[in-house]
Amino acid sequence: MAFSILVVEDERTLAGNVELFLGKAGYDVSLAYTAEDALRQMESVKPDVVLLDFHLPGMNGIEAITQIRNIDPQVKVIMFTGHGTVELAVDAMKAGAYDFLTKPISLSKLKLLLDKAVGEQKKSGALAYYQAREARESGLDKLIGESAPMQRLRDGIRRLMLAERNLQDKEPPVVLISGETGTGKELVARALHYDGARGDHPFIEINCASIPPNLLESELFGYERGAFTDAKGRKLGLVETADGGTLFLDEIGDMDLGLQSKLLKLLEDKTVRRLGGLRDLRVDVRIIAATHRPLDVMVSEGKFRADLFFRLRIVHLTLPALRDRGDDVLMLAKHYLALHAHRYGKGPLTLSPEVEYLLRAHYWPGNVRELRNVIEQAVLMASGLVVESVDLQLFPQTANMVVETSKSATPLSLETIERETLLRALRATEWNVTQAARLLGVSRDTLRYRIEKFGLSATG
Fold first, then answer.
1. How does pLDDT run across 217-269, given as a tens digit for each residue?
2. What was the pLDDT predicted at 405?
3. What's the pLDDT band for 395 if we cut at 50, 70, 90?
4. Omega of the bond leading into 149 within 30 degrees of 0 (cis)
5. Which of 33, 118, 275, 355 is the most buried (most CB within 10 A)?
6. Paired strand residues for 175
7. pLDDT at residue 277 greater than cutoff 60
């Protein structure tokens, strides 16, 4: 893609030299010899950058900047002049200039400056694209399912959003989302943000389990230069980056106790202090947290702060496990079937009756995430337009166990089924946690937590 440059210079020789040089560098260059001519060309040329001389016949450069940016607020304007002064440079920056150069112009320096300007243009354009795509792919309508638990969840979210529209202080409550791994907690957080009053502002997310505690603190709260050995400059934390929008703290149950106290201060005071900083900074950020861990149990065990727990669960939303959602399994399976069939360029696919039976019977320890991956794999393996049982890669012990349980005279509890599922996976992999986690479609941390929860051991 060739970036468009509009050169506004009344010295025709200089304008021609700049056009020739930038043309060889791969830019699409247009010329204007007056500000008035440049303004007329703005709509047709649609420049990414305008190179604007200050001394022009008629309207001068400072006057032109304002009108140029009125036409296109995103365009970057680089002003140059043969009589540069500090006052003129300040006036140009105030008017909206991106940078300021004095004549004679160094063409190599000009190219470096242009490369930087268009690089930033590309980044901001990409950011706008991804933000728009995130908004399109997020929302309450993305929470697919008609089961009673899902209808209650959506109804609760709607009531919360309705209440937030009437907020007088514009400070929405903290929300805690709980549910097993893979149930879609992030989708709920995104729905709350993008369908809410803050949808046009940043949505920043971080997984508290994926970053060591010392690094997580600097990621969240930022730091000042010299705060620690490698702090070569100031860095804004994610809390400040999310100002005006939403900060989504996934797997908050894994947050270090020391860091929990700082988060509590943020929730209470709406202030943040960078590492090495001397003053608190006020921020306007909405906190949404999520966890698959039982925080109430962790509080009783001293592994999670009670005051933070009660502060987080002002609004508590719980996502049901996929196995508790009845025919939502088939609804979701058909949704992912159509999605992946389109992605891989295959015709409209359907599920055989046997596949539908197997999907209903499966225990789904990895929940919706596991289902999505299973269906994608089936789409890849399907040789025709009907997905058959041979195309599925389900964990057979789990499916068989659920079928056997349904036939038994004495019904088993979900905890018993879960414990037995874990044991079978671990024994099948000779207690290799990584392989067992992959087999179950969950993370290693989740599996380790379940092993600890049920007190499982290779010798037990």
1. 998 998 888 888 777 777 888 998 888 999 999 999 999 999 999 999 999 99
2. 44
3. low
4. no
5. 355
6. 288, 315
7. yes
Tell me: pLDDT of 124 over 70.
no
Q: Is 145 left (phi over 0), alpha (psi -120 to 50) or beta?
A: left
Distances in whole angstroms, Cα of residue 51 to Cα of each of 18, 45, 46, 78, 428: 10, 13, 13, 5, 68
Whether residue 351 contacts residue 334, with contact meaning beta carbons closer than 8 Å, is answered with: yes
- The arithmetic mean of pLDDT across residues 326-340, rounded, is 94
* Sign of CA pseudo-dihedral 135, 443, 257, 212: negative
Counting the structural domains of the chain, the total is: 3
How far is Cα 193 from Cα 201, in angstroms, rounded to an integer?
Answer: 9
Q: Which of 22, 13, 24 is nearest to 49 (CA)?
A: 22
- In this structure, are 302 and 161 located in the same domain? yes
Look-up of token digits 């929008």: 245
Lowest mean pLDDT, pick from 173-182, 378-387, 425-434: 425-434
Q: Residues 64-91: pLDDT tens digits? A: 998 998 888 878 898 888 776 777 777 8
pLDDT at residue 443, rounded to an integer: 77
* pLDDT, greater one: 347 or 308: 308
Statement to judge: residues 216 and 286 lie in one domain: yes
Residues 171 and 304 in one domain: yes
Angle at 370 between CA 365 and CA 376, to 5 degrees: 155
Question: By residue range, what is the domain housing residue 35?
Answer: 4-132
Assess if residue 112 is contained within a domain. yes
Q: Where are the beta strands (DSSP E) in 82-231?
A: 99-102, 175-178, 203-207
Contact 331, 367 (CB under 8 A): no
Q: Are residues 127 and 226 in the same domain?
A: no
Nearest CA to 313 among 133, 114, 125, 176? 176
Q: Are 281 and 321 in contact (CB under 8 A)?
A: no
Q: Are residues 316 and 329 in the same domain?
A: no
Residues 156 and 103 in one domain: no
Q: Say which DSSP state 410 is in.
A: S
| pLDDT average, residue stretch 377-399 | 82
Radius of gyration of the chain (CA): 29
The CA distances from residue 207 to 72, 110, 245, 367, 402, in Å, are 38, 42, 17, 19, 32
- The encoded tokens of residue 115 equal 């490369």
pLDDT at res. 400 = 46
Separation of alpha carbons 126 and 124, rounded Å: 5
Instruction: Give dist(CA 199, CA 202) in Å, integer.
Output: 8
State the pLDDT at residue 404: 45
Residues 83 and 182 in one domain: no
**pLDDT category of residue 129 using cuts at 50, 70 and 90:** very low
